[in-house]
Each structure stands twice: as C-alpha cells, then as structure tokens.
Amino acid sequence: MKNKKLWIAAIALVAVIAIMVGVWLATRPKADDGAKTITVTISHKDGTDKTYTWQTNAQTLAEAMNEKGLLGEDNDGMYNTVDGETADYSVDKSWWCLNVNGTMAMEGANTIAINDGDDFHWVYTIG
User: Fold this and answer.
1) Are residues 17 and 78 in the same domain?
2) Contact at 8 Å (CB) between 37 and 116?
3) Is 120 exposed, middle or buried (0-12, 13-18, 19+ CB in 10 A)?
4) DSSP 8-state secondary structure symbol assigned to residue 35
5) What are the backbone dihedrals phi and psi of residue 97, each rounded to the nearest 5 degrees, phi first?
6) Do 41 and 65 fall into the same domain?
7) Three-state secondary structure call for residue 125
8) Number of domains in the chain
9) Tens of pLDDT along the chain (127 residues)?
10) What is the enclosing helix (H) or strand (E) of 14?
11) Cα(93)–Cα(87) distance, rounded to whole angstroms?
C-alpha cells in the first residue's frame, strides 16, 4: 500500500513540474523579430558610465552584446567581463548586476529576450 501511494505522489509531482514548465514556455517573454534598437549602459568600477545604442536583429542580450564585443567569456550563463572590465568575486566580492528596463534581471544575458526600445544596465557591484 505504501509503495502505491509513493508512486502516485511521484507521478503527481512529475505532472505538476511538467505543467509548470509548459506554462513558463508558453508565457515567457519573446524577442521581437527583425531590427530593434536597444540601449546598454555599463557602470564601471571607477564610477564611469558608457552608454551604447544600436540596432540589432539578435534575439537575446548576449547575442547583441557579442556583436559589439562587449561580453567576455560565457561561464555557464554568467559573465565576469563586461566592456573589458572583469569582476572577480574571489578577489573583492565583485560581480556584475544586470538591470532590464530598470528592474534587476532574474535570468542571465543568454536567455533575456530583447525587444525594441529595451534598456539594459550592467553595474559593477562590490559586496
């Protein structure tokens, strides 16, 4: 009897996970097709800002930034180097905080879909 209940619970859990993945796939933001204009601001450790605005056909932020050579090596979806400056958490607890249209990003640059008029802000952050 316990085995049967365990199997039912496991199947129910798998079904719930499958439904959640399906809902996420159906409702996740999708990139605009064709050319779109985006703005990327990078706030460096020394307090200077650089702002880039360009048109791109890229679907994700990482693709668009790689077109301009603004991202370093991809470390499992995380970028330690932006616009030639490397943040190293092991040295000074620094990292790059990414904001999308004024809100802190909840996903990485590899999966952020871009749309016309989007504004991205990378901030060198310590602590």
Assistant:
1) no
2) yes
3) buried
4) -
5) -90, 130
6) yes
7) strand
8) 2
9) 677 777 777 777 777 777 766 665 555 555 666 799 999 999 999 999 999 999 999 999 999 999 999 999 888 778 999 999 999 999 999 999 999 999 999 999 999 999 999 999 999 999 8
10) helix 2-27
11) 8
Give the separation between CA 103 and CA 8, rounded to whole angstroms: 41
pTM over 0.85: no
Q: Are residues 2 and 18 in the same domain?
A: yes
Burial category of 114 from C-beta neighbours within 10 Å (exposed 0-12, middle 13-18, buried 19 and up)? buried
Domain region containing 26: 1-30
List residues bridging with 72 in a β-sheet.
none
| CATH number (domain holding residue 85) | 2.170.130.30
Per-residue pLDDT, 4: 79
Considering the domain architecture, whether residues 15 and 66 belong to the same structural domain is answered as no
Q: Do 44 and 65 lie in a common domain? A: yes
Same domain for 40 and 72: yes
